[in-house]
Every structure is written in structure tokens, then in C-alpha cells.
Design brief:
about 500 residues, mainly alpha, Fumarase C, Chain B, domain 1, Fumarase C, Chain A, domain 2, 2 domains, 3-stranded antiparallel beta sheet, two-stranded parallel ribbon, histidine ammonia-lyase activity, cytoplasm, Histidine ammonia-lyase, L-Aspartase-like, lyase
Length: about 500
């Protein structure tokens, strides 16, 4: 896959994350070289330029002698590699490397071609730095995480190789690579930027799109189990309101329910006038989720294609302009949007599970067991889903409105994008489990409608579930069933062949 700086799509970033072999667009070579040459010309002018021949942050007024410029860049990397906590997951760290590579290759960062080449080579050889995930406040760049990434390029710290943690110097040598000796500005260019926060946000968007689509299927499965109506999905209702996500979601729900014998069985003689909101308002809630995710995707994709270090090098005029592109407020806001969307996908799903286990609402046996009382059936899986929803509600508290001054008040407003984006992986994992439980509950409910087929997509999903998890007749160890359902949700297999709305619409 070709990394084309400034033109990458969400699907391409997914490929980078998932380990697809990458190459850098060769058209970037002249602009990278010219940017590095501009730094040399700026240095030759002997004027103080932030980050090139001065200290950093609050120490920007300290002029650095020419003989110390190489040490200056190495020092900033080692001193800033001060992260703590568990390491980034390898796929997200790969994504961070790809984002930094694309940013540097725009030719506005002043790094040399050999520096870009080393980062590309590490990505190609799956030498993924061990990067502690805590320590960034999302302003002046994701400094600590990116410092750990850069330290590995210097042969300091560790990298993941085939799942094992290996000293960076040893891993580079085994791959036939030399540790990097930093040139002027290069340490700062590698450390400044939002690539840590943006990588987590992109990862969450990829997962959220899958979860949105899966929730459409699980929602219709539950609708079929409860003998719900498809009237609320009528296109005329949604056209009158005019929200694009709602209209597309309703169309998808109609498609998923088309041809259902279960639905046909109660078109006449059904005394219920309206279904509960968890069924009836799926287009409105999930459509709003889709609109929100698309807005977040537009922000994060723009960020991923931009340049966010400082100062920026303009080779046509030999200028180094100091600004604030490293401030991750756009990513922080987008992360909060994704958090809200993930929270609502889980909220609505859990309400459908609760509806299904309640015979007064669903018309099904209590807790979806053929022998209530002797058996508890889906009583506690619903409690588990409720617990996960509560966790996600707590995690959905906005991170973007927080700030804490750093660097002796030089960096007096920060975005907290790193926190906002990093929490999303755990939230998505919770939604995986909630949807897995709903799929099991919905399939169990449909099993009570023996002799009536659901729609083709729903019956295909039921068959896939039942191939792995049999109908619950008598109580059994539930955790393995739930773990199997979670694995199925994460695989995306149930929705792979379905034409459902997504973030690229």
C-alpha cells in the first residue's frame, strides 16, 4: 500500500494499522530533501530559530552553540521519553508511526531523507517501538509517546518484534538498520505532533464504524425476536425530518427486515400500537450516531493528513515559522464525539436486551429460558450489559474541556486529546461485549418463533451464531458463550457481506 501524504483515507489508515506492507510515495522525495536543505540555510544565517539552535519550551530563550546542536536534538528525545504505563497496542503504535511518516514527508518539518527512510524501514519490518501510553496532555505535541518512538530509532529503549520485546539497538542491527544520528531540528520534528492522539482516534473510528453496523443487525434481530414493527422505518417518516444519517439508517433497517415471515405473521391482529423506543427509535438514535461519527471522521482524517509539528519550515522563503499546530484540540473534540457515539450504541443495545428478557414487554418467556424459575436464562447477561453501559457512561465525560498548565506555564492550555482518544479503545471493547450479548439474546428470542423465518440477513446471522453457540435450553456456563459472541462481533463476519452505511458515505 502506498502512503500518500495529505491524501490518505480512513480505509488506507486501517490497512496501515492492520499490518499491510507499505511504501512511501516517491513523489515526496524532492520536498523532503528541500526542507532539510532549508534548515541548513537557516542555520547558516546565524539567527536564533526556535528548536533549531535554541532550547525548548520555557528554555526557548537559551541560544545553543553550533557544536552542541546534535547533542541538543538527542537530549530532547531522551529527556522527553518519560512516559509510564502499559505500552501502546502494536496496531495503534503502527498507526502512529505511519501518521508521523506521512507528516514528515509533507516536506515542512526539516528532516533529512535518511530519517524518513529509517521510520519507513521500521514500519516495513514491523519493528514497532514499545511506547508507554501515559504521559501526554495533547499539546506541544504528544511529546512523551513520540519521544519513546524516536528513542527506538536512536537504538534506545525497546521494540516489539514478533510479539517479543527486544532492545531497540539489537532489533535494528538484526534488521540491517543503523541507529539514527539526529540532525538539526530532527528531534523536535519527531517529538512534536498529534500522532499519538490521532492514532488512537483513528483506531476508535475504525472500530466504531464496525460497531455501528453490527448494532443495526443486532437491533433488527431483537426487533424480530420481539415481533416488532417495521413501520417506524418507513422512508416517509425520515424524509420529513431530513437528517442524512437517520434516512440512511432507516433504509438499512428496512433492508435488514425485508422478507421476514416473523414480521408478516403479525401484520394483522397485533394489538400493540407502538413498540418501545429501543425498537421504534433506532433510525433516530443510530442515525444521529452515524452523523456524529462522520463529523469526527472528517476532523481526524484532516488531522491525519496534516502537519502538526513546530516550527514549520517553508523552503521557498527559508523561513521557520513558530505556531501551534501541535495543539490537539480538534482531536480532543473528535474523541469526545466518538465517545458519545460509542456510549449511545451500547445504551440502545442494552435497552433492547432488557426488553427481551422482560415478558411483559417482549411477549417471550421470562429471561428467554424455556423453564423460568428453574433456570435464570439471560438474567445476568443483561446485568453484565448494564454494567458495561455504566462504565461507558462514566468514560464518556468530555476530556476536551479539561486543561492543566505545563512547562512552567509556557504551555498554559492543553487539549487532553491523548486521554480522550486513549479511553476509546476500552469503550469500544465494552460495546463489543454488549452487542455480543444482544446477538445471543436476539437469537434466543427468535428461536421461540419456530416455523417462522426471519429476514435473510437475520437468519444468516442466526445461523452463524448457532454454529458456534447452541440455543440455551437449560442453564449452563454463560461466560464462554459470551466470549464466543464477542469474538464473532470483533471479526466483523456477520456484517461483511451486508451493504450498510459507513463513514465514507
Amino acid at each position: 500500500m502506498l502512503i500518500e501524504p495529505g491524501r490518505m483515507t480512513l480505509a488506507q489508515w486501517r490497512d496501515v494499522r492492520d499490518g499491510t506492507p507499505v511504501e512511501l510515495d516517491p513523489k515526496t522525495a524532492p520536498q523532503i530533501a528541500e526542507s532539510a536543505q532549508a534548515v541548513e540555510r537557516i542555520l547558516a544565517a546565524k539567527e536564533p530559530v526556535y528548536g533549531i539552535n535554541t532550547g525548548f519550551g520555557k528554555l526557548a530563550t537559551v541560544r545553543i552553540a553550533d557544536d552542541d546542536l546534535a547533542a541538543l536534538q538527542r537530549n530532547i528525545v531522551l529527556s522527553h521519553a518519560a512516559g509510564v504505563g502499559d505500552p501502546m497496542p502494536v496496531p495503534v503504535a503502527r498507526l502512529m508511526m505511519g501518521l508521523k511518516l506521512a507528516s514528515l514527508a509533507r516536506g515542512a518539518s526539516g528532516v533529512r531523507p535518511e530519517t524518513v527512510a529509517l521510520l519507513l524501514a521500521m514500519l516495513q519490518r514491523n519493528l514497532v517501538p514499545v511506547v508507554p501510553a501515559q504521559g501526554s496532555v495533547g499539546a506541544s505535541g504528544d511529546l512523551a509517546p513520540l519521544a519513546h518512538m524516536t528513542a527506538a530509532m536512536l537504538g534506545v529503549g525497546e521494540v516489539f518484534v514478533g510479539g517479543n520485546r527486544v532492545p531497540a539497538e539489537k532489533a535494528l542491527s538484526a534488521a540491517g538498520l543503523e541507529p539514527l544520528e539526529l540532525g538539526p531540528k530532527e528531534g523536535l520534528a519527531l517529538l512534536n505532533g498529534t500522532q499519538f492522539s490521532a492514532a488512537y482516534a483513528l483506531h476508535a473510528l475504525i472500530e466504531a464504524e464496525r460497531l455501528y453496523r453490527t448494532a443495526l443487525l443486532s437491533g433488527i434481530l431483537s426487533t424480530e425476536a420481539a415481533k416488532g414493527s417495521d413501520v417506524p422505518f418507513d422512508q416517509r417518516i425520515h424524509a420529513l425530518r431530513g437528517h442524512a444519517g437517520q434516512i440512511e439508517t432507516a433504509a438499512a433497517l428496512r433492508m435488514l427486515m425485508q422478507g421476514s415471515e416473523i414480521r408478516a405473521s403479525h401484520r394483522t391482529g397485533d394489538i400493540r400500537v407502538q413498540d418501545p423506543y429501543c425498537l421504534r427509535c433506532q433510525p433516530q438514535v443510530m442515525g444521529a450516531v452515524l452523523d456524529l461519527l462522520r463529523q469526527a471522521a472528517a476532523t481526524v482524517t484532516a488531522e491525519a493528513n496534516g502537519v502538526s509539528d513546530n516550527p514549520l519550515i517553508f523552503a521557498d522563503t527559508d523561513e521557520a515559522l513558530s505556531g501551534g499546530n501541535f495543539h490537539a484540540q480538534p482531536v480532543a473534540f473528535a474523541a469526545d464525539m466518538i465517545a458519545l457515539a460509542l456510549c449511545e450504541i451500547g445504551n440502545l443495545s442494552e435497552r433492547r436486551i432488557a426488553m427481551l428478557v422482560d415478558p411483559a414487554l417482549s411477549g417471550l418467556p421470562a429471561f428467554l429460558t424455556p423453564k423460568p424459575g428453574l433456570n435464570s436464562g439471560f438474567m445476568i447477561p443483561q446485568v453484565t450489559a448494564a454494567a458495561l453501559v455504566a462504565e461507558n457512561r462514566q468514560r464518556a465525560t468530555p476530556a476536551s474541556v479539561d486543561s492543566i498548565p505545563t512547562s512552567a506555564n509556557q504551555e498554559d492550555h492543553v487539549s487532553m486529546a491523548a486521554h480522550g482518544a486513549r479511553r476509546l479503545a476500552a469503550m469500544a471493547a465494552n460495546v463489543d461485549a454488549i452487542l455480543g450479548i444482544e446477538l445471543l439474546a436476539g437469537a434466543q428470542g427468535c428461536d421461540f418463533h419456530e416455523g417462522l423465518a426471519a429476514s435473510a440477513p437475520v437468519d444468516a446471522a442466526r445461523a452463524a451464531l448457532r454454529a458456534a453457540v447452541p440455543m440455551l435450553q437449560d442453564d449452563r456456563h454463560m461466560a464462554p458463550d459470551i466470549e464466543t459472541a464477542i469474538s464473532i462481533v470483533r471479526s466483523g463476519a456477520l456484517i461483511a457481506s451486508l451493504d450498510l452505511p459507513g463513514l465514507a458515505e
